[in-house]
């Protein structure tokens, strides 16, 4: 091959390679931008969800119905029709329906007919007055810096759902410690039990629907630890 021809081939290859690299670079940048936008959207969605109101109802009864393969209990409270989905352990526990249970409600959505959809949060009624102030340790990690605070978390039920614990703890973190107000959503809640077992909740996502039916005996909770990471 002549030098002139070789030079042209080398130049063409260089231009082609540069074009591929540029194209790949643009694709990577576009993907990173999309991920950043999604990340910020996730944070805003979590902040909205855990800042929303919750409702506590007592003495709820209703039969289980099948709704697209899911177990649902329908009931009315305060002129609002509720669709309670049982998607976890509560599906088997309350397969015949509810008879005077307590229900902790957080709105998942309102359908076009005005029905409020909620998941889990069913517990037995208190047999007596119950109020427990549980130690809540909040660790905020920013790089190599650690800011630790000792707080308390009030539980007023003998049997409490993981849904209620998750929602109320995160709401307290949103209101007092700035959870989901920056650009980071990472961390976890650790519920330490007196038998040394642990229940962990990932702060980067909502509590899974199937876990919203889990329940704990409030007297068995030793303390609660939270780690919030700024990344």
UniProtKB/TrEMBL annotation:
Residues 135-228 form the Staphylococcal/Streptococcal toxin beta-grasp domain. SUPFAM superfamilies: Bacterial enterotoxins, Superantigen toxins, C-terminal domain. Pfam families: SSL_OB, Stap_Strp_tox_C. One of its GO terms (cellular component) is extracellular region. It comes from the Bacteria. Residues 45-126 form the Staphylococcal superantigen-like OB-fold domain. Belongs to the staphylococcal/streptococcal toxin family. This is Exotoxin 1. It comes from Staphylococcus schweitzeri. The gene is set1.
